[in-house]
Amino acid sequence: MEASQRWAALAPGAVFARYRIERRLGRGGMGIVYEATEPGLERRVALKLIAPEAAADDVFRRRFEHESRIAASVEHPNVVPIYAAGEGDGIPWIAMRLVSGSDLGRRVLAEDRLGVEEAVRIVAQVAAGLDALHAAGLVHRDVKPANVLLSGRPGAEHAYLTDFGVARNVAGTSGLTKTGRFVGTLDYVAPEQIRGGEIDARVDVYALGCMLFKLLTGEVPFPREGEAAKLYAHLNDEPPSPSLFAAQVPAALDRVVARAMAKHPGNRYPSAGDMGRAAAAALSGAPPAEPERTVATGAAAVPTREVPRGETPTSTAPAPGPRPRMPLIAGLGAAGIAAVAAIVVVAGSGDGSGDRSADGSARPTAKGSVDAGNARPEPLSRDELVRRSDDICLDSQNQFVHVSQRFPTGEEEATVPFARRLVQISTEQLNRLESLTPPPGIASEFDRYVELRRAVNRYDKNALAAAAQDDVEEFRRWREANFAEGPERFDLGRRIGFEICSAVRNPQG
Description:
With 509 residues, the chain is of the alpha+beta class. The chain folds into three domains: 3-97, Phosphorylase Kinase, domain 1, CATH 3.30.200.20; 102-300, Transferase(Phosphotransferase) domain 1 (Transferase(Phosphotransferase), domain 1), CATH 1.10.510.10; 352-496, no CATH class. Helices cover 44% and strands 11% of the residues. The strands form three sheets. Strands 1-2-3-4-6-5 form a six-stranded antiparallel beta sheet. The protein has a three-stranded antiparallel beta sheet with strand order 7-8-9. Strands 10-11 form a two-stranded antiparallel ribbon. It is elongated. Mean pLDDT is 77; it is low at 166-182, 307-376 and 504-509.
């Protein structure tokens, strides 16, 4: 029987690599997990079989065997213990402790989002487990809620990090397989993984920042339609602030998420544990319990050459790092490359540029410049400004349509999830528009247009606050204020030359 057939044919009672199959627990992109019994010890284990197509080369097998041994040596309360690993019938497998309970992904799905203290407590546990992996020279590479197991009573669960080693072994030094398949979860992937660059422990710090945002808000940081749009957002868009989408989240946690999700690895926390301690300190108001440091060794170690020019490696606050002008994305296949290329050509170099005052003179920007120095880019041509702005508005419109389909009664019921997504859409749209540099001839009109977009963002935030208080009338009042100013936005957009941004059909105005 071929490996693929054997892999798919394990019914309860079957024996695989000395383990007796009891039942199937789940299946993911990299393999299938069974509850099984180890004969002799009569010990129940979680037996993961790696998909044959994901392990079809000798390089994978050698890495899998080597790094499984390392992972089995990691002993930490927040890391699922590995009992054994091997290969049977051409299928690599791992036997791990069977954790009774559920995973964090299902918990968030059931509750929409966690309480702030609970979210920080779980993230701190996962961070401690990641530090143990990094100290052993391993990079998890696929940190996400579904890879965190929970046991214990609600509100006091113990978190176990699991499913490490597989994605890294398949992908090698980046997030891509030899066949161009991206390995990892796009909602939590670091920019350097997308570019196929060198990987170290800080890709897990980035993913942990994404996960903290998800636990606090119930949404991933960059909810986009399609892989290309998600990849573009991780490469170029500013990290969102969780306090904008959940009123109970303190602003101090915004800074933790922003630093963890910094585009340049040198601007992130040097270790996952540092991020976990920073999140706890953000709630308590006290300084972190330990000084910042990297604990990673081996393949997880941070390179010595890593800090962008003009920054210091000991800074405890995120400094704005340089952002790529034209990010190179490989390995997505022909369709993926074409989709990403279209986005990059239309809007890629606009992010990170300065904006301008009404008279056309340059004004300071909070966003990093597109190169390592302080020079600001030249103003865009009118045609280029129109093209990029319309692309931004089209993306916003598509997101709004998707949200309206997901929450068809959101306008009437003033639901918090619906209002929270409105804020996220208008915030991201505003940030991208503010990054564009108009030509002097239409600078005053464009600045007025951006100011009207700021008003939209304010109205959306006020609507969210009203929804959080179950005040439907106040919610509708702020939504109507948004629509009331729509004609001025449309008329101004037409004068500038916009098509999408001036279209009445745009539900976001």
